[in-house]
Amino acid sequence: MAKIGSFGDVIFEVSQKKILTFKELEMKSSAKWDEHSIHRNKAKLEFDGPGLIDLNYTILLRAEQGINPMKEIAKLERIKNKGEAHLFILGQKPLAPNKFVIVDTSVDLKNIDQKGNILSAEVTLSLKEYVESKSTVKKTTTNTQKKAATSNKKSLGTITITVKSVHIRNGPGVNNKVLGYATNGQKLTVYEVKNDWYSLGGGKYITASSSYSTLKKG
Fold first, then answer.
1. Is 3.40.50.2000 the CATH classification of the domain at 143-217?
2. Is the distance from CB of 125 to CB of 56 less than 8 angstroms?
3. DSSP codes joined into one string, 187-213
4. Long-range contact list for 183-188, CB < 8 A, 24+ apart?
5. Which of 41, 81, 204, 218 has the most CB atoms less than 10 A away?
6. 143 CA to centre of own chain
7. Beta-strand (E) ranges in the chain?
8. In what order do the strands lie in the sheet with 19-28?
């Protein structure tokens, strides 16, 4: 038996008794960019991290190849309806580091005998990458002390947001988690500049680019 891969308990294999394969495997991914409008100028793009991966493929189910089409279709429907997330294995390795969920299925019943038995079918599936959430950080005395220290720290000045919206992150860089947004006209107290990012205190940061805000020192 040659095992091609698997998704959950759906095993893709080729042997003398059984052939279960897929075709037209397509993997799509993109990056996330936020567009901020600037009065009388072209919009400013801000990178917001990588997007999710989409997988699309079609499974071939034929009774003459040792497959029970309805049984395999039932497996896929169960995975979809229960919201199960699984790695898509190709060969001996995952196709991507994260798991996938089935978001859409389309079943084409190709051949039905005189007794109503399904002899062959093709199932087209759409999968989306599922990123498991990380455990939340519990509030500690150290975190409380940091916030207290920030409140006693002398401010660098005040910024005024000049675009539609800007991300507020939990670190000085675009790869850090988005905590919220600052909107046009909003004024924020800043305490220092770190790696071209303003520290807002309490572990919050916003870009120091003059394309997004103006700074009034003092």
1. no
2. yes
3. EEEE-EEETTEEEEETTEEEE--TTTE
4. 185/160, 185/161, 186/160, 186/161, 187/158, 187/159, 187/160, 187/161, 188/158, 188/159, 188/161
5. 204
6. 29
7. 2-7, 10-14, 19-28, 31-38, 41-50, 54-62, 88-90, 93-94, 99-112, 118-130, 157-161, 165-169, 178-183, 187-190, 192-194, 197-201, 204-207, 213-217
8. 93-94, 88-90, 2-7, 10-14, 19-28, 54-62, 118-130, 99-112
pLDDT (tens digit per residue) in 120-173: 999 999 999 999 876 554 555 555 555 555 555 678 899 999 988 889 999 988
Cα separation, 35 vs 170, whole angstroms: 20
Q: Which two tokens stand for residue 211?
A: 């394309």
Kindly report the CATH class assigned to 2-130: mainly beta
Round to whole Å and give the CA distance between 134 and 146: 23
* Cβ–Cβ under 8 Å, residues 151 and 205: no
List the one residue out of 21, 28, 24 whose CA is nearest residue 7: 21
Enter the tokens of residue 168. Answer: 């507020």
**Amino acid identity at 151:** S
Cα 50 from Cα 159, distance rounded (Å): 29
